UniProtKB/TrEMBL annotation, chain A:
<feature type="domain" description="Ionotropic glutamate receptor C-terminal">
    <location>
        <begin position="23"/>
        <end position="243"/>
    </location>
</feature>
<dbReference type="InterPro" id="IPR001638">
    <property type="entry name" value="Solute-binding_3/MltF_N"/>
</dbReference>
<dbReference type="InterPro" id="IPR001320">
    <property type="entry name" value="Iontro_rcpt_C"/>
</dbReference>
<dbReference type="Pfam" id="PF00497">
    <property type="entry name" value="SBP_bac_3"/>
</dbReference>
<dbReference type="InterPro" id="IPR018313">
    <property type="entry name" value="SBP_3_CS"/>
</dbReference>
<dbReference type="GO" id="GO:0016020">
    <property type="term" value="C:membrane"/>
</dbReference>
<feature type="signal peptide">
    <location>
        <begin position="1"/>
        <end position="20"/>
    </location>
</feature>
UniProtKB/TrEMBL annotation, chain B:
<keyword id="KW-0812">Transmembrane</keyword>
<feature type="transmembrane region" description="Helical">
    <location>
        <begin position="58"/>
        <end position="83"/>
    </location>
</feature>
<dbReference type="Pfam" id="PF00528">
    <property type="entry name" value="BPD_transp_1"/>
</dbReference>
<keyword id="KW-0813">Transport</keyword>
<dbReference type="InterPro" id="IPR000515">
    <property type="entry name" value="MetI-like"/>
</dbReference>
<dbReference type="InterPro" id="IPR035906">
    <property type="entry name" value="MetI-like_sf"/>
</dbReference>
<protein>
    <submittedName>
        <fullName>ABC transporter permease</fullName>
    </submittedName>
</protein>
From TrEMBL, chain C:
<feature type="transmembrane region" description="Helical">
    <location>
        <begin position="87"/>
        <end position="109"/>
    </location>
</feature>
<feature type="transmembrane region" description="Helical">
    <location>
        <begin position="160"/>
        <end position="178"/>
    </location>
</feature>
<dbReference type="GO" id="GO:0006865">
    <property type="term" value="P:amino acid transport"/>
</dbReference>
<dbReference type="InterPro" id="IPR043429">
    <property type="entry name" value="ArtM/GltK/GlnP/TcyL/YhdX-like"/>
</dbReference>
<dbReference type="InterPro" id="IPR035906">
    <property type="entry name" value="MetI-like_sf"/>
</dbReference>
<dbReference type="GO" id="GO:0005886">
    <property type="term" value="C:plasma membrane"/>
</dbReference>
<dbReference type="Pfam" id="PF00528">
    <property type="entry name" value="BPD_transp_1"/>
</dbReference>
Amino acid sequence: MKKIMLAAIAALALGGSAMAQDTVRIATEGAYAPWNFLDEAGKPAGFEIDLGNAICEQAKITCEWVINDWDSIIPNLLAGNYDLIMAGMSITEERRQTIDFTQNYFPPDPSKFASAAGTEIDFAALSGKRIGVQGGTIQATYAEENYAADNTIVTFTTADQAMADLAAGNLDTILADGAYLDPVVNASGGAIVFVGEDVLIGEGIGGGIRKDEPELKKTLDDAITALKADGTVDELIAKWFDGRGPFFAQ
Amino acid sequence: MIDDIAFWFGYLTNGKHLTWYASFQFTIFAALMGGTLAVVFGLAGATMKNSRFFPLRLLGTIYSSIVRGVPDVLFFLFFPLAFEQGVEWLISTQVCSPAAIAAQTAAWPPCKEANWFLGTTEYLILASVSLGLVYGAFASNVIHGALRSVPAGQLEAARAYGMSPRQVLWRIHIRQMWVYALPGLSNVWMLIIKATSLLSLLQIADIVLWADRLGAPNFLPAVGLVHEDWRWRYYLVLFVFYILVTWLSERAFEAIMRRAGRGMLSEART
Amino acid sequence: MQGFLNDLAIMAPAVMFNIYFAAASIPIGFVLAIFLALGKASPNPVINRLTRGYIYAFRGSPLFIQFFMFYSLALSLNIALWKPWGISGFVLHPLFMGPLVLILNTAAYTAEIFYGALRAVPRGEVEAARAFGMSPRQQFRHVVWPNLIRLAWPAYTNEVVFLFHATAIVYFALPVIGAQADLMITAKTLVEGDYNAFLHFSVAALYFLTVSLVIFFLFGLVYRRLIRHLPTQPRLRFAPRWLR
């Protein structure tokens, strides 16, 4: 009896994973405009959603979007709650220890510091400052390694929360992806400005997958290569990042 | 003026807000299902505590004291994960070949065929079960006390009437127990309602997650209405929502207690 | 076994955060609760309504939402610009904001307990005190208060234990400063590393249980002192009636 029950559970699970082969679940954060956000209709939208759908079309696979908080997005990938992460995740050596990446679909882009206008920050001897970052990002790791000794690193769950604290004066500066900050600084009408020098970290943004899935990796890589070649990726970057780039085409 | 009203009406009924309103279903489902399960586990726990068989009695006592001794949020995070891993381990004993296990690089699951996908529905059910387990421990205490509050004379009268022990238990003891248990159970129900605010910790896109997403400052016209940090307004709505639910539940429990107390001795209404 | 000992060592500093949150909020919450309980019993309609409303609101809504609401509210009110002693980021620091919200919350629960006890103070003793010519202040100090605290202590003990449990969600709701992490965050991070949920959550649970028992023991000692003059000594039982 017990054996039969186990077999039934196993069959159920097998059925589940067989189905999962046809549908690729893509996780995104939905709070990192313009890469990914929830639009007025409450659906995921943005550069990565357009690109993800294009990749799925190219590779002839069905895709389904899943919203997952950033701080648990890698653990839940490993736990098998979805198959692919497209959430503005930079490719780094550190992350490569736990997950695999597709080739990058967004070129390496400098990270920048932003502050409220009029904030005086001496980056040569940065000390006693409150630096906001989103937890689990390359910027968080960078700030932790370089500034933690003399400054306070404040970690937020989403980038927007860090932005809100900066706007309210609870932070001296925040460190984030340049392409995330660009439109925010532009839209702030001079209230928020870039400060200091850009920092180049990461190898561009790629899709995160589990390590044991070479077929999926190949399928996705092939699709991204094709989309890069026919200019779709650059078109989408131009569409979502105000035509500013960075682009793959030289 | 009219334009303003039309604008705000439009804003508050856009798809993002409608999704927020719709997400209340998760909270309500978790509360109702968690509440029902809490009573079931509570009855089971109380029966075990009353058992004449010592190991069962011990098990009942351990269940209700351990679960009450740790924070609900710890159990809430632990149980779904532990359950998932348990199922995956069961599957792995059936489907994993030694080669597949050897090929597995990640720490879990044992092999990738044994993976169990969890979506919102599965998480919601697991969340409800953990609510049921946690607050079942509280309910078992309440029910245990209520079972002992039923006047012994009532049970003796039933026995003298020739009822079998089973009949005494179900027709007299448990039937009358409710009146004594209701005040305590209403307290447990209030706890469950408040604990449903934790659903977002299990990756369920619930009212709290949407309040954060809707209220977060937006700078990009492409994303939607450009506004500053409005989160506190959305959280205020949730704050008021929970107070209203508490108020409604209190009224409902009062009505039920009045109804359940009909025909009982006045000493029953404590 | 090695993993278990490792976890014990890793979580030892983490539990200090939970203890800090509880220790910082309990004394202030206790004092605030006395005033709230007196307010709820006050015949003055304004004070009465206000305190009733406050107690109802804070007991009727989840602490989790209260954390989010007060943090974002403080941001919007530009409270960050207020810098006591020139320390920036003081008010919105989780080590300040956490206890603040916990105080507001526990004061409401504790006030409800005290209010219940206040109504249970034997009328005869109060009347005797009045007949004795005691002023209202003296009546409270010498008759009402000793009775109240003795009646409320068992329920208050449970409230303190549950307040300690409630510290588990502070860092789920507030931004994390540097490498500070309480028990839950530490346990969660460890689980996300190696998926050994049974080990890491059990160790965290063990810490919570241990501290709960210590609280229980200490409050039991106080209770023994409070009831030392009574002929029959009721025992403190772990039977929460007022729950968060």
